[in-house]
Design goal:
Chain A: Its cofactor is FAD. The complex is a heterodimer of chains A (480) and B (377). Chain A is of the alpha+beta class. Chain A contains 18 helices and 18 strands. The chains are: A alpha+beta (480), B alpha+beta (377). The complex binds flavin-adenine dinucleotide. The site of flavin-adenine dinucleotide has 37 residues of chain A, from strand 3, helix 6 and strand 10.
């Protein structure tokens, strides 16, 4: 993966930039020693590493604004960072950039149950947002599997999703307002506790903009009353195709489960070995979860069971208790960990129309044979967001490149069948150079014009999202 | 009137345009005053893709909303966001189009549970003010590839581009619905009742208060939708929680009630101005107090207030200090001109808005005069 050459001029000014930053922050909030900067050299896309020029950990919106104003004046690129769990290299620094981490900004600012929102500083982790309201019967719906670690800041920047977004939507559908600091230090309030912001939908634009339009310091999030109960059913099938068809039929039948998760045989075997959840040894399995009172759950599971039985399932296991539910989810939740135990893996994130599921799974198997790399599939089937895991050996020369090439082929396939390159992880650096397979030059130009408005000097996270060759003229102006 | 028959023809027209155009779908949502020749999407019609098993529908922007609703109903599916029909309130004629619903982000009572139009919209194609064809999003519901111009286009009132095609995530239709009703509540008490219902786990999909229900008295209404047994169960639970309620469990009658709430029907006809106010739900009663004698319809648990006030009233001045915003929906042209149709924006937001408009419509020819920025710039 190519990154632009760092600016020698900026590197040579490191000490004066650091001094200016120390002028507006506590000394312990400005990190500049090489060994300490290691902590910020990568995110969860660990194949790529580069320590930044410096890292700052402000505590307030005012401090963020002061830092940005300085970097703006100095012409120093800034890479915003939440918890650094991006799988796309979204928070990967360049050597001439300042990492602006919001990890110390994690306060709850206001909670209102009558208006059903919570306002937090964005360094707060996803799970601790729910943690702040769950005793009172509420929760924050978007639930990425990384929710214990990832921050609301990164969730907003990536427009993250989770297992339950089939029913509740992704981050953008649960965000009411933000405080955004632009690169020049201007503080902008967008939206608020009312349900729709007036004017152009800047909120929708900021969400998913991967830290390229501004630094989000506070957010107003919609919270929901917890359902009375939830229960999954596990259904095993003897082929991927049939499982795919079953997903489509469930959706057509008029039940809207909160989650439909899919695992294929390689993934089932690996998780069984790792977590021992007692899954049937079959070609494909679905975990379908529904919510409501006991009676409502029974009714919905009844409908789902009936549809599933029409598809010759190997096994149907309807949960009857909290323990059984936990066991059904156990395997799914440990899937990534399990794969990590047996191999290095690369996790893809393309989305396809649900109806193309059988075809795409077939093609992935062919690609797997062609490249000689194993693939395990575990994903959110209800919305077509696939997570093929390509297994490889990072220590073997050339395997990473081979794996990336195969990943690119799979993502191109997703686009070809009417889907997209990324459903929830974001483009970052990982899918940057594939953007032209999904978008025409005019489509990309329209997006870049938005950045021109918010960050005319292209200093915020500039080497991400768009192919470098496409952004080159804009970044060149910034470098002057 | 310009009526391009294809996206390419539309692009040609905009590229060649030397004077402003007024973008029009069905012409039923004529809020505010735009200048110039009418540019109609009436000939850009048709559902281009509908996959019930994937919950997705794609249609050309000029497709009548009724065609979409009927096509979905045939598969027992529907648009989640329940778009308002402006015809009664505004006294307009014509057929609402799907593009018009998107351009105005038209969203009804179900917004509290299923989100606004922008939340169901998953893809757009449009032609910007320079005549360039742009696509964003697509036909899958989870998509974070690049910036989300889909949301930006929703509710942009044709000021950034002319929509040519829109894609949606749709939802299964419901087997039945019922409405819990309380009479004679004050706005204050009503909003408290609605908040209690919305805090419950019983999945309320409508929460409104109108000064005159079908019985001619103030009415608080709470809607439940779903499988019959589930609706009955939840209605019973809520009744226990809320006390003296009547239950309208005739689905058709319930649906009629919500159509009237959605369209703010009781505010139609009278020679008075109508405003649409967005505030945090618990501030609904504050709005009521500040507006005194005004006739109000409160939806979204109090978060959306339709207010009918004497002609020429500067309602924004009366609501000073209550966070949120107000749009002038129905008034004489001079009132629109004097007070501004769309809410004024604070400086940094106005600057971003103006910047975006200048980028997407560099010659300022699209719906010139609509939304706030250029007038105030
Ligand atoms: C094991 C594992 C499982 C995961 N599962 C899921 C999943 O189920 N669903 C899902 O969607 N994702 C998942 N992810 C990906 C990742 O957790 C999400 O993208 C998450 O939202 C990133 O949050 P973060 O705080 O770690 O952000 P970071 O990695 O720190 O940053 C991500 C992006 O946000 C930008 N950013 C950070 N802070 C700000 C700010 N204050 N203002 C503006 N921009 C900012 C960064 O510049 C970067 O572009 C998973 C990751 C891992 C490692």
């Amino acid at each position: 993966m190519q990154m632009p050459d760092p600016s020698a001029a900026i590197l040579s000014r490191k000490s004066s930039v650091v001094r200016r930053l120390q002028g507006v922050l506590d000394d312990d909030s400005v990190i500049h020693e090489e060994n300490e900067l290691r902590a910020y050299e990568c995110d969860a896309l660990t194949a790529y590493k580069c320590p930044p020029l410096a890292a700052v950990l402000p505590r307030t919106t005012e401090e963020v604004a002061a830092v940005l104003a300085i970097c703006h004046e100095e012409g120093v690129p800034v890479v915003p960072r939440g918890a650094g769990t991006s799988l796309a290299g979204g928070s990967l620094p360049s050597a001439d950039s300042v990492i602006l981490g919001v990890a110390r900004m994690n306060e709850v600012i206001e909670t209102s149950y009558d208006d059903r929102f919570i306002r937090v500083q964005t360094g707060r982790t996803n799970l601790s947002v729910t943690g702040a309201v769950e005793e009172d019967g509420f929760f924050y719906a978007p639930d990425p599997s990384s929710q214990l670690a990832c921050a609301i800041a990164g969730n907003i920047a990536m427009n993250s999703g989770g297992a339950h977004c089939l029913k509740y939507g992704v981050t953008t559908n649960n965000l009411l307002g933000v405080t955004l600091v632009q690169m020049d230090g201007t503080v902008v309030e967008i939206g608020g506790a009312h349900m729709d912001a007036g004017g152009l939908d800047l909120l929708g634009l900021v969400c998913g903009s991967e830290g390229q339009l501004g630094v989000v310091t506070e957010a107003t999030l919609r919270i929901l009353p917890k359902p009375e109960g939830a229960r999954p059913v596990l259904i095993g099938f003897s082929s991927n195709e049939v499982a795919g068809q079953c997903v489509s039929d469930i959706i057509k039948a008029g039940v809207l489960p909160v989650a439909i998760e899919f695992m294929d045989r390689p993934c089932i075997r690996a998780t069984e070995a790792f977590a021992g959840a007692g899954y049937p040894d079959c070609e494909a399995l679905l975990i379908v979860e529904v919510e409501g009172s006991d009676a409502e759950i029974d009714e919905q599971l009844g409908v789902i069971g009936q549809i599933a039985r029409g598809h010759d399932p190997v096994e149907i296991r309807e949960s009857q208790s909290a323990e059984e539910s936990a066991r059904i989810w156990l395997g799914r939740k440990s899937a990534f960990g399990a794969m990590g135990q047996i191999n290095d893996y690369m996790c893809l994130d393309g989305t396809i129309p649900v109806t193309e599921l059988p075809k795409v799974l077939g093609r992935i198997r062919e690609l797997s044979d062609q490249y000689g790399l194993d693939v395990a599939n575990v994903f959110h089937a209800g919305d077509g967001n696939m997570h093929p895991l390509i297994l490889f050996n990072a220590n073997e020369e050339g395997q990473l490149e081979k794996c990336e090439a195969m990943g690119a082929d799979i993502l191109r396939l997703c686009v070809e069948v009417g889907g997209c390159l990324t459903g929830e992880h974001g483009v970052g650096i990982e899918k940057r150079d594939l953007m032209e397979t999904q978008f025409a030059p005019d489509d990309l130009e329209a997006q870049m014009r938005v950045k021109d408005v918010f960050d005319p000097k292209w200093l915020l996270n500039p080497a991400k999202v768009f192919p470098l060759s496409v952004t080159e003229p804009r970044r060149a102006i910034a470098a002057e | 009137m310009l009526t391009p028959k294809s996206e390419v023809e539309l692009a040609d027209i905009l590229r060649a345009a030397e004077t402003p155009v007024r973008v029009q779908g069905g012409g039923t949502r004529g809020v505010g005053v735009a200048r110039g020749e009418v540019l109609s999407t009436a000939s850009l019609t048709g559902i281009t893709l509908y996959e019930p098993g994937a919950l997705t529908l794609v249609a050309k922007a000029g497709t009548p909303l009724s065609e979409i609703t009927e096509t979905l109903a045939a598969e027992n599916q529907r648009l989640p966001f329940e778009p308002i029909d402006h015809r009664r309130l505004l006294g307009t004629k014509g057929e609402p189009t799907i593009g018009g619903a998107v351009a105005t982000n038209a969203s009804g009572p179900r917004r509290i549970a299923a989100g606004a139009c922008r939340d169901s919209l998953i893809g757009v194609r449009f032609v910007d003010g320079a005549g360039t064809i742009v696509k964003n999003g697509g036909r899958v519901m989870k998509n974070v590839t690049g910036y989300d111009l889909v949301k930006l286009m929703a509710g942009s009132w044709g000021t950034l581009g002319v929509l040519t095609e829109v894609s949606f995530k749709v939802l299964p239709g419901v087997a039945s619905e019922a409405t819990l009703l309380l009479d004679w509540q004050t706005p204050d008490a009503a909003i408290k009742t609605l908040a209690r219902a919305l805090r419950s786990p019983f999945e309320v999909t409508g929460a409104a208060y109108v000064p005159e229900g079908p019985d001619g008295v103030p009415m608080t209404a709470i809607r439940l939708e779903g499988f019959e047994a589930s609706v009955a169960y939840r209605a019973d639970k809520l009744r226990t929680e809320l006390g003296e309620v009547r239950i309208e469990d005739d689905s058709e009658k319930s649906a009629r009630l919500w159509r009237d709430i959605r369209d703010a029907s009781i505010l139609a006809g009278a020679p008075a101005d109508v405003w649409r106010i967005s505030v945090r739900p618990s501030h609904g009663p504050r709005v009521a107090k500040a507006l005194g004698e005004a006739r109000l319809v409160m939806d979204w648990g109090g978060g959306l207030v339709w207010a009918q006030v004497a002609q020429g009233t500067d309602l924004r001045a009366r609501l000073k200090g209550i966070p949120g915003h107000a749009t002038l929906v129905r008034a004489a042209p001079e009132t629109h001109a004097r007070l501004g149709t769309f809410p004024p924006e604070p400086e940094p937001v106005a600057r971003l808005t103006a910047g975006l408009r200048a980028k997407f419509d560099p010659r300022n020819i699209l719906n010139t005069g609509l939304m706030a920025a250029p007038e105030h710039a």
